[in-house]
Each structure stands twice: as C-alpha cells, then as structure tokens.
Specification:
Strand order of the largest sheet: 16-17-18-19-20-21-22-23-24-25-26-29-30-31-32-33
Helix content: 10-25%
Radius of gyration: 36 Å
Number of domains: 6
Shape: globular
CATH superfamily of the largest domain: membrane protein fhac: a member of the omp85/tpsb transporter family
CATH topology of the largest domain: Porin
Strand content: 35-45%
CATH class of the largest domain: Mainly Beta
C-alpha cells in the first residue's frame, strides 16, 4: 500500500474551543487512521476564511503539496493556526488528493462602547480592557474584561457594580462590543474594630492605618474604600507601629472584612496580640571578617541600652554598619542582628554580627507595574545597579525611598535566580496612585493697623508630584482677599544632571493694599539647589531676586499728606518707589519627623543665612533659625506635645536698614497679636503710631494636641492648647520708639483639621503679657503651616 493510501480515510483535526487555545491546550482528534505512515497531497484548499488570505493560512500550516507529512504535522498545524488568535475553530481533513483546511474566523472589533458609567471615564475603562478596535473578538476576552471593569469599580468603593458585555453584529464580520454598567452605590466602611489591644486605644490605631471609617466627608477624602491589598498593607503598618514602640512580639492574628449586603458596608476587624513591651539591653558588635575594627563601629549604632526597643533603630543601625564596612572595601559583608530576650527584665540584648555574605551579583533590575512613572525614576532610588554586589540592606533602603516618593500604593522588591549561580535578578513591583492634587483653602483674620491680612482670603493650588512620570514637582497657586493678590509657580527636578541634587525655581507676584494708604507690588524669582548630606540632614543654596514697587492710593497719592497718617520711615520708603533685592541664601534642614502629615515624634529644624547686596538696593546679612520638637505624651490618649523655638537677626552691610527690611511679627512668631503688631514703632503723621519692625526676634511656643472628642478619628479634627512668648526689638530707624527687649506672651486654644482641601487651623489667643502700643488679634483662621 502506498503512503498516500494510508491516509485514505482522512486526517481530521476536530475543532478546538477558543478557551482551550488560550490556555495552550490543544486537542486534535485524528480519525480513521490505518497506519502511522506519512502521506502526501497534491493541493491545499482553504475554506471559511473571509479576511485572512489563503496563502497566509497555507504558510501557517507549513504543509506543502507533494511533500510527505504525518499526524504530528497536522497536529502542529492546528496549534499554529489557533495561536494566531484569528480563528474560533479550525479543522483539517483529507479529501482525495486535497488537504482541506476549514477555519472559522473570529469577528473583528469595530468599537468598544461603555454605557451607564459616570464615575469612571470611558478613556480610563478603554485603557483597562483587552478588547480593542481592529483586534479579534473572543468570548473569553469579553468575560475577562467584564471582571476587569468590576475590579475597577471595586477600587473606587463600588463593590456592587454590575457589568454586562454583549456584541452588536455588523457586516464584514465586524462587531461592536458594548459594556453595560450599573454603578450601584458607594460601598462604605461602617466600622473598624480592634480586638486584643490594650496598650493603644482603638482611636489611636485607627489613626495609624490608611483605611478609614466612612463619614460625611468621605466622598472627598476617598479613604474609606475597602481594598484587600490596602488591608494587607495596614497589617504591616500596625506591625511597624508596635515594633517601633517596644512590642517585639506583636502579631496580627487576623484581619477580616465582612460585607453587609443590605447596608452595602464593610466591618473591618483586626485581631492582634500585643505581647510584652521591651527595652534595649546590652548592645555589641562582633565580626568574623578579618580587618574590621568592631570598636570603631560602635559610633554607627543607633540603638542605646535602656531605650525602648525600636525595630527602626535596629534597621538604621544595620544600614549604617553596612555602609561603613562597604566603604572600607568589604562589598559582601553582611550585618545580621541577633536578639536575646530576657523575659524577666523585659530587655532585648542585640549583637550586630558582621560576616562574609554570599558572593552574588545583580544581573539586572526588572521593573513592573509602572504605567506612568518612567523606569529611570525608580532605578535612581537604588544605590545598586547591574553588575554590583547584591546587598539586601541597600535593597530595603531603596524600597523605603520608593515608598517615600508617595508615587505608589505599594512597593514590593523580590529576587529570582539569574542566568548564573552567582547572579540574581531584582524584580520591583509597584502599584501607582494618583499624584495630582487640587486644594483650596480659606482664612479669616481680624487684622487691623497697617496690615493687609484682615478679612477673608482664599487660596487654591494645583500640584503634580510626578509630572509626566518624570518624578518632577510642579505647583501653580493663586489666592487673595479684599486687599491682597498672590500668584506663584514652582518647579523642582529632584535629580539634577542625574545626581541626587534637587534643582528648581519659583516665580511669584504679590500685591498688597495697606489700609487704603499705599500699595505694594512684589515680583520675584528664586533659583535653588538642594543636596542631601545624610538621611536626616540636607542643605539648600538659592539665588533670590525681587522687585518691590510702592504707590500711594486714595488720599495718599502724596505720601507726605497728613491725611495718610503714616510713620516718617514708611513714608520715606514709599517715596523711594522701586526697591530691588538681589541675594544668595543657604539653609540647613534637619528632619527626623515620623509623619509630616500627622507628626507624633521627631525634630524639624531649619537654619538659614541670607546675604543681600549682589547688585540691587538691599545690602544686609540676615540669619534665621527655627526648630520644632514633637513627642508623644500619651499613646493611649494620642496626646502629642510640641515645643518650638526660633530667632532671627538682620544687620545692614552699608548704612541703615530701610523700614521694610526689618522683621515683622506674625502668627508664626506669636499668636494673639496683629501682623506687625508688636515691637518698635514711630508716631504717624496726623496722630497714632505705626509699627516698623525690629532687627532681632526670639520666640518660643509650647503646645499639646489631642483628638477632638466625640468625632471619629477619620474626620481628621484635633484640638490644641498652647502658650506663646516672643520679643521683637532693635531698629535702624532714627525715630524709632520701643526698641528695647520687651517680652510678650499669650495663651490660647485651637482646632486643627486635616481637611480634603489641605490642613486648616483656627486659633483663639489671649495676650497675658503685652505693651500698651501693641495691636491685639485674638482670632485667626487659615491654612496651617507647621514647618
């Protein structure tokens, strides 16, 4: 029998479902095979195709007339045709001397249409789904896209959203794909409960985690959306919180979220085991690596005997030790802490052991999940690159830096084996979040005298922290009130010339009207560079240029008109017209604050020196300093204390200072007094006095902040009580009075609100120590500026 006759009952590939094709499972059923001998055909016929050319299909099956082929060849041909994604069904059979290839083409998507969606725009849904115009349609893709859309709605807190996909047949094998969406109501978080906690109250722990209970402002805050990934992240946040406060045995036993389908609301419950609270016992360093002086490394250790145990201090010590020994040429040295608990004394002895680690190198860094952020923005946060020695400590440091960018919801870094035994691949998985912000705030003050800050004022801004995915910071702001207008634009490149040096500029224009006596228009710009010195200490160098222009208004077109009631020094400054300042400034900033949005511990200090005189009219040296220390006074009550001290001095380099270069008091120096309401003054023409500022000031403030009772923590409202003291003295103005050092003091209470529009604060302060010539302002409401 000839080879061709062995195929006389036909070779048939039974049609495969598209679902099996997608999963890589191909089932080819060959019927009526009498022998395993090869066969030949004289021609190949293609049937059922409408858009795909016959020759294209013949090329895919790779069987040629006149050439022998086997059952395996037919099997592979069917697989290749399914793998194109163009066909819903394929069968191959033999009829006489012809090989018949019958295909059923998938329809082609003409349009993808979304109906009923309001909360998520069409463009955002279109980017998420698989089905796209001019691509093949399949029911499996339709079902997958339905789930993708449902997941998108779950991420914005609409768990009961329903999605139904269907097709609308058109001519030429085309279809419109239509997704009908019923968005449903917002799924709320009715309650967040904690079980097993004794050291910290429920309110304190709710403040720690990112998931919040629903309240009447949740539609703006968007922090009451249940997400399983967020819940897992909150578990880790709780662990860090407890580990950094002495609870080394803390465990999250379970974290559950129960949905009440009737109320469409979750109840989240964390069950925890706090364990005992520990302090550090004996601390030491040991090394098996020849050449390392362990005694010299003690200065790098951040943990101290007797202090409350803190995992962060241990991590900081590991990083400091690793960098120190690596800098001395031990690239593969590995620092491992060993803890020994003493259950009786509740102390943990820690020994930092330095050993020679495995010699592994980074083959490559693979980044996944960043749809908007450029790869290099993520890569530059690593102190490691391809080919470097692998160091787990530096990898974790990069992870913290990436989290600190505030570009991502989650950051996970893992390793997989490389192509060689001594190589590893770093895999960085990120989930991006929105980095654009729009904020609007309002303020009110009862200012009087020569201040333009009285009455209502508003401020709005648009900020993008990750401009075009390049990690750049852009901010546009505008605001003003009855007698003021402010406009500003800021830009910052955090990695100038590819180095960890920030560079940016600010441009601004400010106009002020002072009690219908005179106007001041200020236009200026700043070019600045920032350089980190350590993780906590950074420096900034800037060049500043501004031009002030003064004009009289109303009855004060002539600034010497007696009806203006202005002090002579102010009249002289207005008469000078334009005033140009060109200066350079340098700053040092020390920051160990635990959370800049809701600080509970740490120090923030700023020291600035400015020298004016590089051209322009102003010629002076000015130094200012301010430091704020936060300390949690009661973890149970979430009571936070802060103490602020500050001071400044300005000295003319040539002649005397003009009146507007002196320091003026404000609510950042002392509350309870009007802007520029204390210190040296001059009699005004026509009666009264005008405060003219001073050359030197010192101030101090003590404050206690606490959760506002009754309201839920998720509302973000806290109360405060405070006491301020300040002095402003000295003057280069010949006719100045009250230039001696005289202290003022005030006490008061305030409300602080972490609102959807930015941090707002309202204070009422009452002066308890003042001079008769001081201007009092008890009530102030505006945007909070902590640092």
């Amino acid at each position: 029998m000839k080879a061709s006759s062995s195929f006389k009952n036909a070779v048939s590939a039974v049609a495969l479902s598209a679902g099996l094709a997608m999963t890589g499972t191909v089932a080819v059923q060959l019927a009526a095979m009498e022998a395993a001998e090869a066969a030949t055909v004289s021609r190949i016929e293609v049937r059922g195709n409408r858009r795909v050319e016959d020759e294209t299909i013949r090329n895919y099956i790779d069987i040629r007339p006149g050439r022998s082929f086997s059952n395996d060849d037919v099997n592979e041909a069917v697989k290749r045709l399914f793998a194109t994604g163009l066909f819903a069904d394929v069968s191959i059979s033999q009829s006489g001397g012809a090989l018949i290839v019958t295909v059923d083409e998938y329809s082609i998507v003409n349009q993808v249409i979304f109906q009923g969606n309001k909360k998520i725009k069409d463009a955002n849904l279109a980017r998420a789904v698989q089905l796209q115009p001019r691509k093949s349609f399949s029911n499996q893709s339709l079902q997958a896209d339905e789930e993708t859309i449902r997941e998108a709605y779950r991420r914005i807190g609409r768990d009961d959203a329903t999605v139904t996909g269907r097709t609308q047949a058109l001519d030429d094998g085309r279809v419109n794909v239509i997704f009908e969406v019923q968005e449903g109501g917002r799924t709320k978080i009715a309650a967040i409960n904690f079980v097993g906690n004794e050291a910290f109250g429920n309110g304190r722990l709710r403040d720690v985690i990112s998931t919040k209970q629903s309240n009447f402002l949740s539609f703006l805050m968007r922090d009451d959306i249940y997400d399983d990934n967020r819940l897992r992240a909150d578990e880790e946040t709780l662990r860090r919180f407890y580990y950094n406060r002495g609870y080394a045995d803390f465990r999250v036993i379970s974290a559950t979220a129960d949905l009440d389908e009737v109320e469409n609301a979750y109840t989240v419950t964390f069950t925890v085991d706090e364990g005992e609270r520990y302090r550090f016992g004996n601390i030491g360093v040991e090394s098996t690596v020849t050449g390392i002086d362990t005694d010299a490394l003690n200065a790098e250790i951040k943990t101290r005997q007797g202090n409350v145990y803190s995992a962060k201090n241990v991590e900081d010590s590991i990083i400091a030790l690793t960098e120190n020994v690596a800098g001395k040429g031990y690239a593969f040295a590995q620092v491992t802490p060993r803890g020994n608990r003493n259950f009786e004394t509740r102390e943990i002895d820690v020994v930092y052991s330095i050993d020679e680690g495995p010699r592994a190198y980074i083959q490559r860094i693979e980044i996944r999940g960043n749809q908007r952020t450029r790869d290099y923005v993520i890569r530059r946060e690593f102190d490691l690159s391809e080919g470097d020695a692998f160091n787990q400590v530096l990898v974790q440091r990069a992870k913290r830096r990436l989290e600190g960018l505030n570009f991502f919801q989650t950051v996970n870094i893992s390793t997989v084996p490389g192509s060689q035994p001594d190589q590893v691949i770093l895999v960085v998985d990120v989930v991006e979040k929105s980095t654009g912000e729009f904020s609007i705030g309002a303020g009110y003050s009862t200012a009087s005298g020569d201040s333009s800050s009285g009455g209502f004022s508003v401020e709005g801004s648009v900020t993008e922290r990750n401009f075009l995915g390049r990690g750049q910071f852009v901010r546009i702001a505008a605001g003003g009130g009855k007698d003021s207008r402010d406009y500003s634009f800021s830009f910052t490149e955090p990695y100038f010339l590819g180095r960890r040096i920030s560079a940016g500029f600010d441009v601004y224009r400010r106009t002020r009207k002072f009690d219908d006596k005179y106007d001041r228009d200020t236009t200026g710009a700043t070019i600045r560079f920032g350089l980190p010195i350590t993780e906590a200490l950074s420096s900034q160098l800037a060049y500043n240029f501004s031009q002030e222009e003064y004009t009289g208004v109303g009855d004060c077109v002539d600034p010497y008109d007696v009806d203006c009631h202005l002090a002579p020094a102010i009249q002289d400054a207005i008469n000078d017209g334009k005033w140009i300042k060109s200066s350079v400034s340098g700053s040092l900033v020390y920051n160990t604050i635990d959370d800049m949005k809701n600080p509970h511990s740490g120090l923030y200090a700023n020291l600035t020196l400015e020298v004016a005189g590089l051209g322009g009219d102003a010629k002076f040296v000015k130094a200012t300093a301010r430091g704020t220390y936060y300390q949690t006074l009661s973890e149970e009550l979430d009571l936070v204390g802060l103490f602020t001290v500050g001071g400044g001095h300005i000295q003319a380099l040539d002649g005397d200072l003009r009146v507007f270069d002196h320091f003026s008091s404000s609510d950042r120096i002392i509350r309870g007094f009007d802007y520029n309401g204390i210190g040296p003054y001059e009699p005004a023409s026509g009666g009264g006095i005008d405060h003219i500022g001073g050359k030197t000031y010192f101030n101090a403030s003590a404050e206690a902040q606490f959760p506002f009772p009754v309201l839920p923590e998720s509302f973000g409202l806290r109360g405060a009580v405070f006491a301020d003291a300040a002095t402003l003295y000295g003057s280069d103005i010949a006719g100045a009075i009250g230039t001696d050092l005289q202290w003022r003091a005030s006490v008061g209470a305030g409300l602080i609100w972490a609102s959807p529009f930015g941090p707002l604060r309202v204070d009422y302060a009452y002066p308890i120590l003042k001079e008769d010539t001081d201007d009092v302002q008890n009530f102030n409401f505006g945007i909070s500026t902590r640092f």
